């Protein structure tokens, strides 16, 4: 019996393996080997790679280890690499049991990170994967300066990043996909934002999140969040309770605040409540999701992806939103790009 044919080439095989590992939440060190090997092969002539396969010298290429070499050899010979076939079977299926109809309506994602802050992959890899997943838009939202552990971007670095986003969009021109400019800006203790007004103005979409003093008392936390929601440049309230329900970072309880007051502020200002799809967050919890629904809030189903494979996590958020009976029309990420941008530019500006 001969192995099934494969003609996408070695780089696509390595990228797909990395994607599936991330999608299946495997350890990042495993993923790094495959992404590193893909990057090592990218500048090489395909004939050169084929010659290495022929001579059994793939591992002499810096960045190509034994398991990557086996994948490359199979792909070059035109057969499905065994590792790839195994991972497709293990991690390639539907992520969630429900929410498929809503998932089909989602056009984009307002929250993702690159290796400019605490993500694991370059901007172009995140953008290219979002395009491959059929997204119309992906917002790049690296962290703001105060979050030093996540290498938050100063105003200067953010300005440089915006040039890179323009360049990536130039490469993807005509694809129907746009990488949008954004930020996940820290909500400071007094409710102000951790980035200059001028830089915030230059962005398409702004997600504001609490990352520090998560245990402050409820009255102060409520004032802090309501103030941020009322900021005219804030479009999305990110992972509102800050809880962690599972995963490598352990668990963390919800912050305490007056959720009704916060969601009423969101409804009043047209700020979207984020449904954070990360399996370890599942934020907001169901009772708060239903409260925000009843108050009449807008929602954004976001991945908060820190790696390309995590861009597929929208399935988890869609499942929860559908279970909570949220009208897709109130989910801004079902909207086409032009409508989304009009909403995000809403503080009385042109358009
Ligand atoms: Zn965050
Ligand atoms: Zn984030």
From TrEMBL:
One annotated GO molecular function is:
zinc ion binding
The answer to whether UniProt assigns keyword Hydrolase to this entry is yes
Q: Which GO terms describe its cellular component?
A: cytosol
All copies of domain Polymerase/histidinol phosphatase N-terminal, residue ranges? 108-189
Q: Does the keyword Hydrolase apply?
A: yes
Ordered alphabetically, the record's keywords are: Hydrolase
Record-given protein name: Putative hydrolase
Native source organism of the sequence: Nocardioides marinus
